[in-house]
Amino acid sequence: MHIAVDAMGGDRAPAAIVAGAVAAARHLRFGLLLVGRSEAIEAELERARGLSRLDVRTVNAPDVVDMAEPASAVRRKPGSSLRVAADLVASGEAAAMFSAGHTGAVVLTAHAAFGMIDGIERPALATTIPTRTGHAILIDSGANLCCRPQHLVQFGAMGVTLARVGLGIAGPRIGLLAIGEEETKGLELAREAHQRLKRSGLPFIGNLEATRMYAGDAEVILCDGHTGNLALKVSESLVDALEGLFVREMRRSLKARAGLLLSKTALLRLRKRVDYAEQGGAPLLGLRKICVVGHGRSSAKAVRNAVALAHRLAEGNLVGALESELKMAAV
Amino acid sequence: MHIAVDAMGGDRAPAAIVAGAVAAARHLRFGLLLVGRSEAIEAELERARGLSRLDVRTVNAPDVVDMAEPASAVRRKPGSSLRVAADLVASGEAAAMFSAGHTGAVVLTAHAAFGMIDGIERPALATTIPTRTGHAILIDSGANLCCRPQHLVQFGAMGVTLARVGLGIAGPRIGLLAIGEEETKGLELAREAHQRLKRSGLPFIGNLEATRMYAGDAEVILCDGHTGNLALKVSESLVDALEGLFVREMRRSLKARAGLLLSKTALLRLRKRVDYAEQGGAPLLGLRKICVVGHGRSSAKAVRNAVALAHRLAEGNLVGALESELKMAAV
């Protein structure tokens, strides 16, 4: 099995992308198709160890979609690393793809190249977040700025399958992210989605007030992509700031200062656990092929985790599981 | 000067409300009009100390707007503590009001009772948040689920005045909360507001990507009320969860465990600093009178801070400052 990797997407591309992808391939023994400017990729590969026993190939793609361009720029760039990577998956040469590039462009490209599963109208990003009691899947975390109520129901069905098949969570519960617990609160989208979810037969527990997002009340948290993306980004910012504030608070007393030294490892481990950039990628659900999207700031370690996830979801046949579950649920 | 306090609003009403309001009045030497069910309020007052030297009066109001009711329920309840408190301010008997009740009902009531300042079309909640470098004002943090671009410009003008007059921040900068740094990213509201802010003459620094919300790049952070409310609630949830996760991480090693004990005070102080429920209230800006809205979970300490804020803003004539600045800016 080969995974196609967009080696040019992300703030630290191609260095972090190539290093991370090779690490995953070495660990899990799968093949890689590294897509992008051959020279740049080969320069990075020269630094990698133990390549001789791996099936790593470079696929040349001269263009790159820049972060400042509109997502639609990808349509004018058939030679972009993103398009070439997606084509490799569409043609069956690769079993899944990964990109840490322009999220909007990845969604457009993957959508056009792979098509949708029956019963799903829009692809959605599913990001795993830590909670007080374990993990939850936030869906949609950024693929669709605007959604309709029925899209949220479809996201719910996919989230439940991903939680079971991808994360091994038995009996996942769905919560609808909202600014109030009551059904009457929030925007029209949330109110209408609430009614549809109630009737859907899915394991829906009702509105999940945003004050409980990380509490562990639900394993699948539904929202539109703008809301989900904002929630993740605000969280990222808060973790950054809290770390600074915590260190400052600790420095105020000598006793606490000693505590800081002793708790440094815990702080570091916690950071890694909640850091969106460290956690690897989010699968883009609803497509006929596996596409994992990475954070723009992805480190080599995050890329390793994301590429490993793409491999795991392809090997576990997530698309097949989604198709059969959706057929049964008939959402 | 008297402050009218809705003694019945909030999860811990009337106990926490009465205790907090009395503490503020005792500390800052102003009068109180405690509005609600007389018997319940007087029972709480019996527990308070040093009342004899204070001007604390009870104003009877038999009704309460319940959190589960729609905001408009307040229209059918002229005898609610909220309406009676607002009327005391409208008639000039009190200089400002505080309520930790149903936010939507507070906004409706204050809007109807006080009217708007010239040049402002919608009242907006302005919540102070901690940042890496100090504080920032998030506006609107929950008064308007939907906004138009010109509303955000008006909120910006008010935020700048509040930052200067209320928080003593010299040269506050305005950032527009968005899911991307680029002007082209985000929803139509954000794109159009961005263009208007650029032309407004206000100290606008551009989009503030949500990953930088707590970074200290801007002292006035603009968004619609749904986005702002969600951002605060997600933050609250994350702080809750992080505390739990941090303690769990620390317990994993003996060394870190010692660190936890030593850093307990720092953790506690940090929690208070970022805890929305601890921080007191948010002024509802744009009205001809001062109204401070408290978090539903307000503790006595939070109420004390919020009532003190209402007093400070009334004494500092925030409404006059807003009116004259808006006349000059002609937003």
Keywords:
homodimer; about 325 residues; alpha/beta; 11-stranded mixed sheet; 10 helices; 11 strands
Brief overview, please?
Two copies of one chain form a homodimer. Chain A contains ten helices and eleven strands. Chain A is α/β, with parallel strands linked by helices.
Largest sheet of chain A: 11 strands, mixed
Quantity of strands of chain A, as a count: 11
Strand content of chain A: 15-25%
- Kindly name the structural category of chain A: alpha/beta
Output the helix-strand order of chain A.
EHEHEHEHEEHEHEEHHEEHH
Q: How are the strands of the biggest sheet of chain A laid out side by side?
A: 3-2-1-4-11-10-5-6-9-7-8
> Most extensive chain contact?
A-B, 60 and 60 residues
Assign an overall shape of chain A.
globular
Question: Unreliable runs of chain A, pLDDT <50, ≥5 residues?
Answer: none
Share of residues in helices of chain A: 40-55%
Can you count the helices of chain A?
10
Between the first and last Cα atoms of chain A, what is the distance in angstroms?
A: 32 Å
- Radius of gyration of chain A (Å): 20 Å
Quaternary state, please?
homodimer
Average pLDDT of chain A works out at: 90
